Amino acid sequence: MPPNLLSARGPTRRQVLLGAAGAALVGPARAADPARALASLAERYYEAQARFDPLYAATLFGDNRFDDRLPLTIAPAQRQARFSMLREAQRELALIPRAALAPGDALTHDLLARELATRLGFEPFPDHLMPLQQMDSVPVLLANFASGQGEQPLATPAQQRAYLKRVGSLPAWSAQAIANMREGMARGVVRPRPVVESVLAQLRPLGSRRLEENPFWGPATRLPAAWPARERQRLQQAWRAVVERQVAPAMRQLAEFVEREYLPASASAPGWGALPDGAAWYRQWVRDQTTTELGPEEIHALGRQEVARIQAELARLGPALGYAGEPRGLLAWVHEQARFRPFRSEAQIIEAYREIDRRVREQLPRLFGRRPRAGLDIRPEPELTRATASDHYAVPAEDGSRPGIFWAVINDPASYESTGMAALFLHEGQPGHHFQMALQQEMRLPSFRRRGWINAYGEGWALYAETLGHEMGLYEDPAAYVGQLRLEVFRAARLVVDTGLHAQGWSVEQAVAYLVDEAGLWPPIAQSQVLRYLAWPAQALGYKIGSLKIQQLRERARQALGERFDIAAFHDAVLGDGPLPLALLEQRIEGWIAARRG
């Protein structure tokens, strides 16, 4: 048996090694009280995760204690150490009798068991050999933080120094990434060409020799005049040294490698199924992202069924907009109508979202008993990632220094359609991601639950939140309702396209054509979305599967409770325990229904 990193005895050699990496699971193996033992394990597990991966496991969830660190989580030794930590946590959890726990602790036991099993399920698959993609790779994420608007704050000299130290680790990360990708090339574990081309376009600006054009130089140009002159001078000199001598050369080297070696070796077949053991790898992604045992074939069929249902509703709405053509042509026709593209500037679009926000706020007290304390801001996506980003939400800072943020992707204001704005805001803003994630952050839960993410729950809730526009009166305008249905048919089509690409051998062209023909996407948007699915396999499946489950539970509660059904209480119950796998959410709502009946 390997040495127990959880024991209270003196550290083993392995503990010392993991401690040097900053992530050992050090603590008592068991306590007399099972609840105390579980609480101890849960916190030590979160700390280990945060120290192994302080960027994705801490900073992005509002935990800024480790903002100066960028460990080499893609290094084979670090990867092996992380899986060892997970196995040891799993062994310790098995020693804690679930039957002896109160219901809340039993839920924590279940959630930790599921999370550990899911993470360990990826151990056979060499994800570290593909460290770059265009959605959220380490170099681009750090460059976006340079704006000072992201999850890593830069409002004080100490915060800037922490970011400088983290950015200064990029050359080591880049060297490891190149070594990994070379191994991946030898083993046939490579990203598809369209993804690599998108990554390359993002990397080139990060290596710019002209400081004023390099995104990493941005913080040095925005040092507040209120800071002491000596502090500002020291920081500017430090930024110049880090960017000019370390980061920019490393990013140029990385971009050159990607262009000259990795791009020619990139995969011609786009889907995960073309990778070694790709079918099993993709099924693990599906299991993780949907929290179900549904197979790709079942999900593909469900997607086609949902697309047909929503298309029938769109056909019914066409005449209300003045459309008299074939039903399948409605969404393309809407895109062509100048009246639905009224904007001429980014500022006009942001103000339109703020007006939607004002209308939503008026309706929230009817639909929710509990609302987040943190505020919500609406901002345009930074220029660096606009071409490849999707609209998204960022959680508030835990200390209250930054609100939740809805990042709206605005590439060309003149072509920005107004029809889908209400539904998109309900999804990314409130009561979608902002309610779910900001409330979760406020809960008194073990850290791994308070700062965790379960895709089918989080995206399922956000897609369900789009439907609440009916209760809020936002879809009385047929154009806004068509916009909501456009987004919904798009999420249904994702079930078809994602499984088509990764499990059925679809080409990029086939996937783009399906999104254009069946979901009415504009071809450039369809192309961008397909690249997203290639970078994030199965992530797009969680939306519709999670939303359908929440809608099913709402209808079950309404029928069971009749006049006693309270929509605000139902929503509070769905959000009340933080993120849950769909099976556990169903158990939670069944218990809530039984309690309301009693």
Could you outline the blueprint of secondary structure elements for this entry?
Layout: H1 13-20, H2 34-52, H3 76-94, H4 103-120, H5 138-145, H6 157-167, H7 170-187, H8 193-206, H9 229-265, H10 278-290, H11 296-317, H12 330-336, H13 346-367, E1 376-380, E2 392-394, E3 404-408, H14 421-428, H15 433-442, H16 447-450, H17 455-467, H18 469-472, H19 478-503, H20 508-519, H21 523-535, H22 542-561, H23 567-575, H24 582-597
Parallel strand pairs: 1-3
Antiparallel strand pairs: 2-3
Helix pairs in contact: 2-3, 2-4, 3-4, 6-9, 7-9, 8-9, 11-19, 13-14, 14-17, 14-19, 17-22, 19-20, 20-21, 22-24
Short overview:
By secondary structure, the chain is an all-alpha fold. The protein folds into 3 domains: 13-125, no CATH class; 129-268; 282-544, no CATH class. 59% of the residues lie in helices and 2% in strands.
What is the terminal-to-terminal distance?
A: 50 Å
Amount of beta strand: under 5%
Number of helices: 24
Cα-atom radius of gyration: 24 Å
Integer average pLDDT: 92
Proportion in helices: 55-70%
Number of strands: 3
Total domain units: 3
Basic shape: globular
SS content category: mainly alpha
Note the main sheet: 3 strands, mixed
Unreliable residue stretches = 1-22
The H/E string reads HHHHHHHHHHHHHEEEHHHHHHHHHHH
